[in-house]
């Protein structure tokens, strides 16, 4: 952490709750590379670290580039699940839906990309688009 995020370590009292290595999924006998799973007691710390890592574009461990990925909290997973039915319908109608982090639905309509953080805002929007309203009226 001090190698990649020295200013974050100084700002917040960073505590790692648990850290462990997991074997490679394809060949468990292979010693490297392994995934390192780090559990943190505060989700805000994890979000700040991931945001800083995205801005930097490169994170290293002992001088070797590594990749960080987010493990979603239960709240985030539940919010993403709520979009699944709408996502499937939009996907069949070729609207190119995407679920953005943490739980935001984005899709292409009339050449523009629209994003919605909750279903209420999506409901307001689809009332102005009759075709989209007919497609999603049973779900929303």
UniProtKB/TrEMBL annotation:
Residues 2-71 form the L1 transposable element RRM domain. Residues 75-137 form the L1 transposable element dsRBD-like domain. Pfam families: Tnp_22_dsRBD, Transposase_22. It comes from the Eukaryota. InterPro entries: L1_C, L1_dsRBD, L1_RRM_dom, Transposase_22. Belongs to the transposase 22 family. This is LINE1 type transposase domain containing 1. It comes from Myotis myotis. The lineage of its organism: Eukaryota, Metazoa, Chordata, Craniata, Vertebrata.
